[in-house]
Design brief:
This protein is mostly helical. It has helices at residues 5-13, 36-43, 45-55, 59-74, 82-88, 94-106, 123-132, 143-158, 163-186, 189-208, 210-223, 226-243, 245-259, 270-279, 302-314, 345-358, 367-370, 375-384, 399-404, 442-447; strands at residues 79-81, 110-113, 118-121, 363-365, 408-418, 426-434. The protein folds into three domains: 5-12 and 24-136, Arc Repressor Mutant, subunit A; 143-257, no CATH class; 345-441, no CATH class. The strands form two sheets. Strands 1-3-2 form a three-stranded antiparallel sheet. A hairpin with a 4-residue loop joins strand 2 and strand 3. Helix 1 (5-13) packs parallel to helix 6. It is flat. It comes from Roseateles aquae.
Length: 448
């Protein structure tokens, strides 16, 4: 004889007799009141009672309660009448729906207004839906890390970040690090590749949340919250440890590739054989018929062995290579040694400055010294002008030192304008002034 669902629901709704107190489970007979987590759980006793009301009982009833509760929370109406609920849950039997609604009312997740004859959702139910929302997601990979990262980043954006959230995220990152370290230490190629895929997905999630984690550290420093700053820095170290494992995965996979063996000239490797064996459902079937044929011994007589030995000695073998002397030396062909030389623009610019010095010029416009040829040559000559009067380059030997020892200095201005050149259309204004010329006064510069 089997019990009906209604009887099972009714039996589940009846609470058992009160058992031992929670404090009785501890050695000292007192709860750890000084622990922060204990205080947080005690403060959220209403949520714990609501969860117990939802999830207490057989699995079928728990799924029914959760389904009805989440359907109610998804309804857009703020107040729902019983007729609306009957139409919405028309597939449910009336007694099952009534028992679930009664459990939700007793858990203070639904409020019944007798005057208006309708139901309304309580604030406790709105808090509980945030805890149950992961149940509606598909079984996606790495949902544990994604949920913790989403909680931390979302709480940081809303300004409700709690140190416990950082604790949970740091613990999950540590567990992932140990899991990946075990995969690397195993040396198994398949285990490494599976762990490498999860490692890459974890890196993508952490990379998307890296800006929020950095912002948490900065804000903790600005606010002077020492505890939050310490947790944020420990979280940053856990992320850095996880990122540093990329090179370890590469080395482990390279080692596995070196240990792979190719079977003859077929191109089939031991990895291919193992992957094929993993796809065979019943490996014992491969040995079917292998022992059905008995062993046939082969006996060889002495004269047969003698004939085989004679044939082996008499057959043609390739002659071994003889030692050959090294070839005679050959004279190297004639050639030219190419030496890297500087562009000719530096020499031409020095010739121009020397000619101006011999002519007694004390100030010249920059255009003749810079423009000419092409844009690349003009840009190169413009880059040479800061060498004039350079204190460090004056002690050098060669063209660079000669350029730095020229008695000219470049003076750029903030003005710009058009120039008459085929390759350069716009250029900053400036002059080349000889060191023998008197320095212009401030009044003359302002007038200029």
């Amino acid at each position: 004889m089997t019990a009906s669902p209604a009887d099972a629901v009714q039996d589940d709704l009846q609470d058992a007799s009160p058992s031992e107190r929670f404090e009785d489970y501890f050695r000292e007979g007192a709860a750890p009141g000084e622990a922060l987590l204990w205080w947080q759980l005690e403060r959220n006793e209403a949520q714990l009672a609501a969860l117990r009301a939802l999830f207490h009982g057989p699995a079928a009833l728990v799924r029914l309660r959760v389904w009805v509760f989440m359907e109610l929370m998804a309804m857009p109406e703020s107040r729902v009448s019983r007729d609306t609920l009957n139409r919405h849950f028309h597939a449910l039997r009336d007694e099952a729906l009534e028992l679930v609604l009664k459990r939700l009312r007793e858990a203070q997740l639904l409020a019944w207004d007798g005057s208006n004859q309708d139901y309304s959702v309580t604030p406790l139910a709105q808090q509980l839906i945030g805890l149950l929302s992961p149940l509606t997601r598909a079984g996606e990979q790495d949902a544990d890390l994604a949920t913790l990262l989403a909680n931390v980043t979302g709480a940081h954006q809303l300004g409700t970040l709690d140190p416990a959230q950082l604790h949970h995220l740091q613990a999950q990152l540590s567990r992932l690090y140990d899991e990946f370290a075990d995969a690397i230490a195993s040396g198994s190629e398949f285990h490494l590749r599976r762990a490498r895929q999860r490692f890459e997905r974890a890196l993508k999630l952490v990379d998307r949340a890296s800006e929020a984690l950095s912002a948490i550290i900065r804000e903790a420093e600005e606010l002077g919250n020492a505890r939050l700053e310490r947790l944020a820095r420990e979280l940053g170290l856990a992320v850095a440890r996880l990122l540093a494992m990329a090179s370890q995965f590469n080395r482990a996979l390279q080692q596995a590739d070196r240990q792979r063996v190719t079977l003859g000239s077929t191109g089939i490797t031991t990895t291919d054989v193992r992957r094929w064996l993993q796809g065979v459902h019943f490996l014992e079937n491969l040995s079917l018929g292998a022992l059905s044929r008995p062993v046939h011994p082969v006996f060889v007589a002495q004269h047969e062995l003698l004939d085989m030995a004679e044939a082996e000695f008499e057959r043609d073998r390739p002659r071994p290579k003889e030692m050959e002397p090294l070839p005679e030396g050959v004279a190297a062909p004639p050639g030219q040694l190419a030496v890297l030389s500087l562009p000719p623009e530096m020499g031409l610019l020095q010739q121009l400055l020397t000619r101006w010095t011999e002519q007694g010029e004390v100030e010249q416009d920059l255009s003749p010294a810079v423009l000419g040829g092409s844009y690349a040559r003009a840009a190169y000559r413009a880059q040479l002008l800061p060498l004039l009067g350079d204190a460090q380059a004056q002690h050098l030997q060669g063209a660079t030192g000669d350029m730095a020892r020229q008695p000219w200095r470049v003076h750029w201005t903030a003005e710009q304008g058009e120039v008459d050149d085929e390759h350069v259309a716009w250029m900053s204004r400036g002059v080349l002034r000889s060191t023998s010329a008197p320095e212009p006064s401030e009044d003359s510069e302002s007038q200029a």
